[in-house]
Amino acid sequence: MEDEKYRYNASIEANHREAFPSTYQDNDVFGREEGHQIKYKTLSWQLVSALMIAEIVSNGMLSLPSSLAVVGIVPGVILIVFLGIFATFTSYLLIQFKLRHPEVHNMGDAGYILFGPVGREVLSAGTIIFAVFATGGQLLAGQIALAFLSNNKLCLMLYTGIFAIPTFLFSLPRTLDQLSWISVPSVISILVAGVVGMVGAGLNPLEGAVIEKFVSTDFVTAFISITNPVFAYAGHFMFFILISEMKNPKDAMKAAYTLQGFATIFYTVFAIVIYLYVGKTVASPAFSSLPPVWAKAAYGIAIPNFLIAGSLYSHTAAKLLFVRFFRKSDHLHSHTVLGWGTWVVLVFIMNAAAFVLAVGVPIFNYLIGIAAALFASWYTYGIAGAFWIYDAYTYRGGMDALKRHGFMTALNILTLLAGLFICVAGLYAIIEGIIQAYAAGLIAAPFSC
């Protein structure tokens, strides 16, 4: 009996080692979790897929039909599909980097490997800033949805406050596993909302809708429009944090394929259908172009997605700092007063900052664009090239390795340059947009209804 028990336990341990080599386990940010009260590494790749889709496929897709209206349906669709494929490639690069460096928990840790202490602080700050701004963007999406559903009976700032409360509450779980289960209905909600929106547009086509294959426009207008699909894929800054809480990080690419396949197909179909039935006058967000009943139905169904996406963003910002403060301490894995107190305060600060920015800064929508241009352009696209070049140079033989893998080297240099172009051109276009908005008197007062 004892021999049988021993063989059984030895088999379990062998399987565990196969899934997580000892070197990975020893260097992993959460280490070995046997006996800990709070276990982080519990996510399957299926639940990570749900978290990724809930975070990325959200209010960003509602701006895609308007992008087609600005540049034309042909270049618009090509861009959406190309960026989806490009984001899949950079997902692969990020995941390979994480598997080689298990100690990496977030972009700040990756920045430390590449650029030292300065890189850690810059990329950590960028992650927090972008996550807070993205939370604010979801609060504004919730504000629009609630205002539509109630026929604008309250001050818009109150709608934002109402939406901020459940966003804060859903951010509070310490592990992503607890958030993953509510991400499943979030995914369903945005999928159903998109289908409802397309059906509503199809049953109520705009009479005389103008559809254009190609549109000639100025650079600023075109690039602001192009940033919509660029940033609709902008969720890679969370990938390291998500993979760190997986049971088997080697399965991360399965989740990435699921995300990018779903997002690329859904974005393309949604943008085409709405644009074909509404035409070049389509609004952003697109649901606002639907008849009132259909708009209310679509917005109402999408609310769970806006809510969970905002919670994931604020959770991410808080988690980065929490792990930074308590890495390798009892407070990370135990139910301590200091651990829980710090966590609640961090989550509250992130959500409060998002709320204040959303209602108190008149140009907040433009600031989201600036934050996306500064950080999402790199996190989703550019910096993945630097990760591959660093690992190839460091672990495969220096310059000889880069020459030996010439095609991949060139591809990753182009990835870096693409991130740089999106960053610089995006900043220029958005700043020009702010100047034009002020000149036209389109900027409201702070904390206004």
Secondary structure elements and pairings:
Blueprint: H1 2-19, H2 22-27, H3 45-56, H4 64-71, H5 73-100, H6 107-149, H7 156-171, H8 176-203, H9 219-232, H10 239-244, H11 252-278, H12 292-326, H13 330-333, H14 337-360, H15 364-395, H16 398-404, H17 406-439
Helix pairs in contact: 3-8, 3-11, 3-12, 4-5, 4-9, 4-11, 5-11, 5-15, 6-7, 6-12, 6-14, 6-15, 7-12, 7-14, 8-11, 8-12, 9-17, 12-14, 15-16, 15-17
Could you explain the architecture of this structure?
This protein has 449 residues and is an all-alpha fold. The protein is built from 17 helices and no strands. It has helices at residues 2-19, 22-27, 45-56, 64-71, 73-100, 107-149, 156-171, 176-203, 219-232, 239-244, 252-278, 292-326, 330-333, 337-360, 364-395, 398-404, 406-439. Mean pLDDT is 88; it is low at 1-20.
* Uncertain regions spanning at least 5 consecutive residues: 1-20
Largest sheet: none
Briefly note the structural class of the backbone. mainly alpha
Number of helix segments? 17
**Residue fraction in strands:** under 5%
Overall outline: globular
Mean pLDDT across every amino acid position: 88
Q: Helix and strand succession?
A: HHHHHHHHHHHHHHHHH
Q: In angstroms, what separates the terminal alpha carbons? A: 74 Å
